[in-house]
Amino acid sequence: MAGNWSKQFSAYPLVTKSPVCPSTVVCVGDIAIGDGDFVVMAGPCSVESERQLLSTAEAVALGGARILRGGAFKPRSSPYAFQGMGLDGLKILAKARELTGLAIVTEILSEADVDLVAEYADIMQVGSRNMENVALLERVGRCGRPVLLKRGMVATLEDLLSAAECIAANGNTDIILCERGIRTFGTATRNTFDITAVPVLKAASRLPVIVDPSHACGVRSLVPMLARAGVVVGADGMIVEVHPDPDHALSDGDQSLTIAQFGDMMRDLDGYIQLVSQAALSCTSQSGGCA
Ligand code: PEP
Ligand code: MN
């Protein structure tokens, strides 16, 4: 298969490019994802307390994030690990939105919670462990909110597009794809960042594509470098974990940036973002953005 993606992925007509619909922009309030801006979603892996979330939200907003991430329902590998604050976590996320103006992305684990999470979230995150949960995909296809669909850790790009098609076939084409690293034989990092996925998905799919440098490597010091790579290969944004005290985080502390590191990373990314957008200007037509 040498780059003939339109043929390879032709079974997914609602999410692949067509001459009539080469690309879609997902609007979240006045934030346009897939319209040329590099949109940053940042925050802790899990909502742990009001103080933790609000201090992170204020800091990431100041640093240039537009969307706050934070898990209220957590998919943990161990049943004994912190499972999230549930409804209390959703309420804290809503308070952070009110105070900072950031939009909210949070994970949905179960069909039974879709209506509840949709009441609080601006974007519904379907995580890697649920990428092939057809019942959940069908249900978020009818939830009336944009969906952030993360690639499963052993999923091919075709599997990812098939999952996206399942959401779209249920009426929801506001889907953002996310490359978050896959399992390989490598053991030095948590996952292997499949950087090639970004240009392939951008070429084959009409949907915006973002990267998750945090889960892609699992190592705090590598995150800014992978974020840079995401910008340079043309991602529409990223989702990144930030914590005021990562060494005491209840989940994913090893890969969470401190607030200062987030600020440094955002300043570093600026130059790369400018370069990429200048290069893109010559070959893109301008669209109208979001209301
Ligand atoms: C997360 O975003 O915290 C998460 C659990 O991500 P993933 O589904 O990519 O593992
Ligand atoms: Mn996490």
Explain what you see.
With 291 residues, this protein is α/β, with parallel strands linked by helices. It has a single domain, classed as TIM Barrel, CATH 3.20.20. The protein is built from 10 helices and 10 strands. The protein has helices at residues 5-8, 50-63, 87-100, 114-120, 134-140, 157-169, 197-204, 213-217, 223-232, 259-281, and strands at residues 26-28, 31-33, 39-43, 67-69, 103-107, 123-126, 147-150, 175-179, 209-211, 237-241. An 8-stranded parallel barrel has the order 3-4-5-6-7-8-9-10, surrounded by 7 helices. Strands 1-2 form a two-stranded antiparallel sheet. Helix 2 (50-63) links the parallel strand 3 and strand 4 (67-69). Helix 2 (50-63) runs parallel beside helix 10 (259-281). It is globular. The chain starts with a helix and ends in a 10-residue tail after the last helix. The structure holds phosphoenolpyruvate (PEP) and manganese (II) ion. Manganese (II) ion (MN) is lined by residues 45, 215, 241, 251-252.
Tally of separate domains: 1
Average of per-residue pLDDT values: 95
The CATH architecture would be Alpha-Beta Barrel
Indicate the CATH class: Alpha Beta
End-to-end gap:
40 Å
User: In the CATH scheme, what's the topology name?
Assistant: TIM Barrel
> What percentage of amino acids are in beta strands?
5-15%
Helix content: 25-40%
Low-pLDDT runs of 5+ residues are: none
Number of helices: 10
Bound compounds: phosphoenolpyruvate, manganese (II) ion
Structural class: alpha/beta
Got a strand count? 10
Give the overall silhouette: globular
Radius of gyration: 18 Å
